[in-house]
Amino acid sequence: MTDYVLESRCCGTQFEDGNWELECPNTRSSALIFARYKKKQLTVHEDLPGIYKFSDWLPINRILKGSGSPVTYKSEALAKHLGLTDLYITFNGYWKERGAAMLTGTFKECEAFSVCARVNNNAGRIMVVASAGNTARAFARVCSENKIPLLICIPDDCSNAMWFAEELDPCVKVIATERGSDYFDAIHLSNVVCELERFYPEGGAKNVARRDGMGTTVLSAVTTIGRIPDYYFQAVGSGTGAIAAWEANQRFIEDGRYGTNYMRLMVSQNKPFTPIYDAWKADSREMLLLDDDVARGQVEEICAKVLSNRKPPYPMKGGLYDALKATDGDVLLADNEEAFRAADLFEKLEGVDIEPAAAVATATLINAIEDNKVEKDATIMLNITGGGSKLFKAEHNIIYKKPDIIFSINAGKDEIFDKVNSLFGFK
């Protein structure tokens, strides 16, 4: 077991991780907790598989089978095209030529392999995960292969993201909210389910294992480059990955061997769904009001459906607002056409397909260079959060997992309780 304690951003209280802690035990303020590891200097354990080579900075007590790891390399073709001298790409996905072996094509596997290896006193209960697609696919694969009971809640519009090379184990079930609903509706459904005694929430951004799993992208980049980058580019829906990057950055500063700077977090959203951008540009810690139906309509328009969180961990202490402020960061935008062009350019120059969210991040990097927002000699980390899906699908017979139950967004608790209990054979 990794040696660490949990600490609250609200009061600095330190406490042991023994009961799937998601909040400070002393207060219920809107603040994240984080893991403080005993080992201040990171050792990369190359003898361990996948992300577990970064186990010094992961809150885990076991190693699960099947893990891949982020792969960082110095770009040549895309860097030359953009006139950059020090562009590093951290690739998360499937790309055998680069040694990338995330079989669901997304860095959400980093979350799943960390979360599912965390200390967990919920034996006999079922973990519940809400997702707009990629997280669902990653957790489904990890839990299926390691026989961990799981219930996934997704919007039915994202069902096409539930693709696999093998049938899922029966320990994994999928429920969905009706067509035209969005990620927020799936979160609501998951919260209702978690009122049942036999189920418990994975926790999302509040789960330290999720954030530190995502933070392995930065661990890969910094240990490969040999220093903390100047800029960090990533598309965000919740912003949890960017928070994780900031936290990893802080640990490297404490490590003392890689520099003392903060990466400027350059996070991006897919127009027209831009709630984080709107709040940031208004210099508001609080999210701005957004009509539910308007939001659902905007989500239908964007190509990167995974970037559709209406209630991100932006305002809370230690959340995205604080991360952007601390790093002098910014929120950027790209529309669908810009993302499509960026995806085509990346595949042409770097040699692999990328997911729409990664294309949004790439598009905003291109725009930032053209607008002189980034120095061309800066050390830049581009987090390609998903890629290689086209490659993987070409090499495998793909199976799609349809939802076991689809609920109306107006479904009552009794209906949800009865059908979910029945799905798992509970009375």
Structure explained in plain terms:
The protein is of the alpha/beta class. It folds into 2 domains: 71-105 and 210-392, Rossmann fold; 119-206 and 397-427, Rossmann fold (3-Layer(aba) Sandwich), CATH 3.40.50.1100. 33% of the residues lie in helices and 17% in strands. The chain contains 14 helices and 18 strands. The protein has helices at 77-82, 108-115, 134-146, 183-193, 208-214, 216-225, 240-255, 275-281, 292-301, 320-326, 336-350, 356-370, 389-395, 413-423, and strands at 4-8, 14-15, 33-37, 71-74, 87-91, 94-95, 100-101, 126-130, 150-155, 163-164, 172-177, 199-201, 231-235, 264-270, 330-334, 380-384, 399-400, 405-407. The strands form 5 sheets. It has a 6-stranded mixed sheet with strand order 4-5-16-13-14-15, with helices on both faces. Strands 12-8-9-11-18 form a 5-stranded parallel sheet, with helices on both faces. A 3-stranded antiparallel sheet has the order 2-1-3, with helices on one face. Helix 11 (336-350) packs across helix 12. The mean pLDDT is 96.
Topology overview:
Layout: E1 4-8, E2 14-15, E3 33-37, E4 71-74, H1 77-82, E5 87-91, E6 94-95, E7 100-101, H2 108-115, E8 126-130, H3 134-146, E9 150-155, E10 163-164, E11 172-177, H4 183-193, E12 199-201, H5 208-214, H6 216-225, E13 231-235, H7 240-255, E14 264-270, H8 275-281, H9 292-301, H10 320-326, E15 330-334, H11 336-350, H12 356-370, E16 380-384, H13 389-395, E17 399-400, E18 405-407, H14 413-423
Parallel strand pairs: 5-16, 8-9, 8-12, 9-11, 11-18, 13-14, 13-16, 14-15
Antiparallel strand pairs: 1-2, 1-3, 4-5, 6-7, 10-17
Helix pairs in contact: 2-3, 2-5, 5-7, 6-7, 11-12
